[in-house]
Specification:
Helix 2 runs antiparallel to helix 7, helix 7 packs parallel to helix 9 and helix 7 runs antiparallel to helix 10. It is globular, with a radius of gyration of 21 Å. The chain is built from 12 helices and no strands. It has 416 residues and is mostly helical.
Length: 416
């Protein structure tokens, strides 16, 4: 999440600013808890039913298609209307979806119910994520863009940790819709927290009218919306990695680790724990100057960790890999988010994030299509190895191209 010291609004007492931040982080925590509870519960229900891996891929693909279609319009709405109100509306919609899903699951098999619910859930979820991330520049403390982005990710990953443990227990103790009712309650708390932030935030001047002042030396035309292609590529690799883990980890636990829903929840917990630790490190002042140039190294190491699942048949080793991947995934996301916020004005931030998400979800859909077609033809560890190797190859090729371009530039600049 997101932006810069020079656009943070001048709120009258600092106490009010702190309350807005606190309510925002509370909303992010409970919204992430509900989101992860929904996806973990739905994926495990599909994995434990007679469905094959293709059904999980289809479920996630339907969500991805919905996100793909909704990303650009959500970005436009976020730049056009009040971002807090949009966040509250998305929580209300998700509550209604989960209540209807829980009621329908009593009467129907999970497959088609979940296929239908994820379409609407993903649209509302994308609206919340885009709106809440675009709010961050207006409430971040002066000079604390990196730290507040990291705190926002800590809140989300702490919510993921709670969801992983609670959902794993609910699925084993009370199979059925209990995890969805739990998620409904968390979205209600998220809505109330954002409502409090909205009430407190009424004293904030309209930050959408303020121009962004980028910390770099850029011309007026360059600052508007141009995001380096290398940042987008790293974002795509990181995004697809996370979606692939979501699609196949339940089958990996069931088939290759011979595990249960509790062990699946444990792996999700370690992912979130690794993310929280890495985000807390980023809140330290000495790391405030880190920029997007560190991202390719993190993506490369994440590729190594993904490929390592091919040799993993031990839960403890899998837990360590999940912690490393959780750390790498969220470090990359924060560094890229901060870099984008420094380059793009706040008035265009929603649309920039929306179009980047269009690219991410579009490529994810191709991955899901491949998984849906192949079904159980390939073991999850084999797919992890192939994708991890691809991440390593892409980053290595990027470094090679960068070195070649630098060498060509130095040759051209040499005096004859």
């Amino acid at each position: 999440m997101i932006q810069d010291a020079n656009i943070a609004p001048n709120l009258a007492p600092d106490h009010s600013v702190s309350l807005v931040r606190s309510f925002f982080l509370t909303s992010a925590f409970f919204a992430a808890t509900g989101r992860n509870a929904y996806y973990v519960g739905a994926i495990w229900m599909l994995a434990a039913s007679a469905s094959n891996a293709g059904s999980i891929a289809l479920f996630l693909a339907l969500g991805g298609i919905s996100e793909f279609v909704a990303s650009a319009p959500a970005g436009y709405l976020v730049d056009r209307f009040d971002r807090r109100s949009l966040s509250i509306a998305s929580d209300v919609i998700r509550i209604a979806i989960l209540l209807m899903t829980s009621a329908t699951l009593v009467l129907q098999e999970p497959d088609y119910v979940l296929y239908g619910s994820v379409i609407f859930f993903a649209v509302a979820d994308r609206l919340y994520l885009t709106a809440s991330s675009a709010m961050v520049p207006s409430i971040a403390r002066s000079g604390g863009l990196m730290a507040f982005n990291s705190l926002a990710y800590v809140a989300m990953q702490a919510g993921n940790m709670l969801a992983a443990i609670a959902t794993g227990w609910l699925l084993s103790a009370r199979p059925g819709t209990a995890c969805f009712l739990f998620a409904t309650g968390t979205f209600a708390v998220s809505m109330l927290s954002m409502l409090r932030a909205a009430i407190r935030g009424r004293i904030v001047p309209d930050d959408r009218c303020r121009p962004t002042q980028a910390p770099r030396e850029t011309s007026e035309g360059e600052e508007t919306s141009r995001v380096p292609s290398c940042l987008v590529l790293n974002y795509v690799l990181t995004y697809v990695m996370g979606m692939l883990i979501s699609a196949l980890m339940s089958k990996f636990v069931l088939k290759e680790l011979q595990g249960t829903s509790l062990e699946f929840g444990k792996l999700e917990f370690y992912w979130a724990a690794g993310a929280v630790i890495s985000m807390l490190i980023l809140t330290l002042r000495r790391f405030s100057k880190i920029d997007g140039r560190a991202t390719p190294i993190i993506v490369l190491l994440s590729g190594v960790a993904v490929a390592a699942f091919y040799l993993t048949r031990n839960l403890d080793i899998a837990s360590a890999l999940m912690a490393l991947l959780g750390a790498g995934y969220n470090l990359s996301r924060v560094l890229i988010d901060v870099e984008i916020q420094r380059l793009v004005p706040i008035t265009k931030l929603g649309r920039a994030k929306g179009w980047i998400n269009v690219v991410c979800t579009g490529i994810s859909l191709l991955v899901y299509a491949g998984l849906a077609v192949s079904g159980d033809a390939h073991a999850p560890s084999t797919v992890f190895f192939a994708f991890g190797s691809g991440m390593i190859a892409v980053v290595a090729a990027g470094y090679g191209l960068h070195l070649v371009k630098n060498r060509a530039s130095s040759i051209r600049s040499m005096p004859l």
